[in-house]
Amino acid sequence: MTAPPEVKYTSTSLSLSSLITCFISCFVIVSCLLEGLCVTSKANALSQSATLSLDPLLWDHVVDLNEDFRILWKIINQDITFEIQARTLGYDRHIKRNGDPEPIVDPSQDYILMWGYENRTHTVLRFRRKLDTCDPAHDIAITNDTMRLLFMYNERDPPHGTVKPGHLPNPGGSFRPYRPIVLTQRPHIQFKHEEYVRILELRNEDVELPGADETLIWCKTFKLDDMKRKHHLIRYEPIYDSPASVHNLQHITLRECHGMHQELEEMAREQGRQCMGARDIPLACNAIVASWSRGSNSFTFPDETGYPMESRQAKYYLMETHYNNLQPDLTQLHANRQMADNSGLKIYFTHVLRRHDAGVLSIGMDPNWRHIIPPGQSQVISEGHCIEDCTAYAFPMDGIHIFAVMMRTHLIGKEIKLRQVCIAAARAAT
Length: 430
What we know:
Elements: E1 6-10, E2 18-25, E3 28-31, E4 61-66, E5 69-76, E6 79-86, E7 111-118, E8 123-130, E9 147-154, E10 179-181, E11 197-203, E12 207-208, E13 215-223, E14 231-239, H1 243-248, E15 249-257, H2 262-268, E16 273-274, E17 287-293, E18 299-300, E19 305-309, E20 316-324, H3 330-336, E21 340-341, E22 344-350, E23 356-362, H4 388-394, E24 401-406
């Protein structure tokens, strides 16, 4: 099943422990980026903070997998450079497809260890490899697909740094939840928060997190303050209530509700309610403003574009949040006593208008009860088309300029493509 892609357009604390980092793709453990033993040196004079590097780089991306593990990366041509900053001391290996969780040493070393060091609390490693190492037996090619980053640690080191199988401290019980990330995504636009930019946090209110393998779709309605003039929304980003929220949040869709309706007023006064998609969402809330999916970070509009906001046009916003915890980290959940969630979206908007208004065009296939997959099929393809009758009605005469595309499928989706087909019609001769 696939959900409609969103097309954005504009119109004219751990003690000493073992460290293992592996990468997963296509729901199968394939290989890993780190192999062999790392070179370490004592650097007690360095700060205990894991954010310091001996040779700082202008990293394209920085992601905290949890409060103790940070990964940074940068892509130049066909090379990708990683840096791992972890509150731990240890070593690095990989795991085999369909094997036990005991990591092994890769016989083919296809990475370059640039340097590494340990201080009293952290291990920092920097290494470089090709996006495609041409070693399919042990490495995974880094592509435009969503990759699954899996990390593992334990409170104890292996005895005397041994690399023999069976000497790791309970590897099967040390795995942590994976984090889906698009490693090849473009660098984030540097956002400068000017004084005329306002911030609004749209948060859920004490939503009870679902158990393992359970799904919850939650709808929360917000009533906007009166805006006497038009504003532009120029950026949005997710708000994580706690480390547990990172593993539960699947996607968030913010919808614009047009008109004044008693139902919307009543919903804005509620804590929120469970919803099951379009049938539980008021028809007035059919315009998508923002869409965030797991694996992505913030989104910043181009300098010349902003999404129009005006209370006379849309006084209510509905935030639809999809929770699903595929691999719960029970250790963290118990440690943080996290039973309810208050995550959401942070939006940035301004009265200083930009040249163009932005919009969101939803295309593709919207799964519903009519969308049936026959049993016993090895592959089922669903297609959705945006025909010319629709675009002629919705698009302005001078056309639109697409500047961003978000592809999304539900859990059963394996692959999604978006194509724009241009057909030139020839006039018949008279």
